[in-house]
Amino acid sequence: MSTTGPYASKLRTVQSVYERKGQLLQPTVYESEQDSENCQKCPDDEWPNEEKDKCIPRIVEFLSYKKDTIATVFSLVSLISFILTIYITRIFVLFWDTPIVKANNRNLSFILLISLKLSLLFVYLFIGRPVDITCMLRQISFGITFTVALSSVLAKTIMVYIAFKATRPGSYWKKWLGVTLPNSVVLTCSSVQVLTGALWMSVSPPFQEYDRDSYPGMTIIQCNEGSVFAFYFMLGYMGFLAAVSFGLAFMVRTLPDIFNEAKYITFSMLVFCSVWVCAIPAYLSSKGKNTVTVEIFAILASGIGILSCIFFPKCYNILLRPEINNKRQLLEKRY
């Protein structure tokens, strides 16, 4: 079987893999001269040259700043998005008591911004040579921070619905207004993911793995997820929260409120679900650093999607349309 595919140029000095009776055999290297009866196997981190008279080091592959331009691009996008999130947080702090900021629970907005900041920063855990500690931290940090963000979005959507129902005289929903319900939603939904992550890390945590079988003459340093069930449960749970938020926000997107953000939540959850629905098949069909690239892209795209869909319209109104950011406009256009 000859060496073909995207790594052919790197493996010109690597001999072909021997195949016998459907099984791949470890190539051997001759000790002294060709056709010698005595031969020895190359070490695991080496591979025989074309002449088969000595061992040469295998090519080592992982997503690296030195070799991969895409790693630098991801780093810059993550840094710029993080700075932008800080700037949006500053705007919300400066206009903390204005109607736009107060309309849809400013505490939830603050929690959402913090979780998005962390999720954007945790991208750096995916870049560079993986070791056991980074393999564990990258998945658990990504899962928890995004779950907190999605829980905050779900709580905001629930509060939009309750706020509209509570405007009716004698409404039963008035007792649910306040900070208790949204805080409970965030805490409960996030606790499920935290508990899952704790069990995952204690029973079968991710670890560093050397893949020497996928490509001849190459060692792929990657993270083995440990428990595959825990990994996909984490993704599935986040997908469930996003789907519930999308469905509820879609139902209340047309409520008569000038500061109703349900339509922005609808778009943000649509972006989130679309990104991950496309990313998961690409993740499953890729190997090595391509797998990490797909996951980083999905994290950045979904995080930036939530940030832009929910907060950009608010910042636009706060900074460029200050005339609508007052209580009088809120009362006049509420119905």
Descriptive keywords:
Rhopdopsin 7-helix transmembrane proteins, 10% strand, disordered N terminus, two-stranded antiparallel sheet, elongated, 335 residues, mainly alpha
Explain this structure.
The protein is mainly alpha-helical and 335 residues long. 57% of the residues lie in helices and 10% in strands. It contains nine helices and nine strands. It has helices at residues 69-94, 99-103, 106-121, 132-165, 180-203, 228-251, 262-285, 289-320, 327-332; strands at residues 18-20, 23-25, 28-30, 39-41, 46-48, 55-57, 59-61, 207-211, 218-224. A three-stranded mixed sheet has the order 7-9-8. It has a two-stranded antiparallel ribbon with strand order 1-2. It has a two-stranded antiparallel ribbon with strand order 3-4. The relative contact order is 0.13. The model is unreliable at 1-33 (pLDDT under 50).
Per-chain topology:
Blueprint: E1 18-20, E2 23-25, E3 28-30, E4 39-41, E5 46-48, E6 55-57, E7 59-61, H1 69-94, H2 99-103, H3 106-121, H4 132-165, H5 180-203, E8 207-211, E9 218-224, H6 228-251, H7 262-285, H8 289-320, H9 327-332
Parallel strand pairs: 7-9
Antiparallel strand pairs: 1-2, 3-4, 5-6, 8-9
Helix pairs in contact: 1-3, 1-8, 3-4, 3-8, 4-5, 4-6, 5-6, 6-7, 7-8
Write a brief structural summary.
By secondary structure, the protein is mainly alpha-helical. It has helices at residues 69-94, 99-103, 106-121, 132-165, 180-203, 228-251, 262-285, 289-320, 327-332; strands spanning 18-20, 23-25, 28-30, 39-41, 46-48, 55-57, 59-61, 207-211, 218-224. It is elongated, with a radius of gyration of 26 Å.
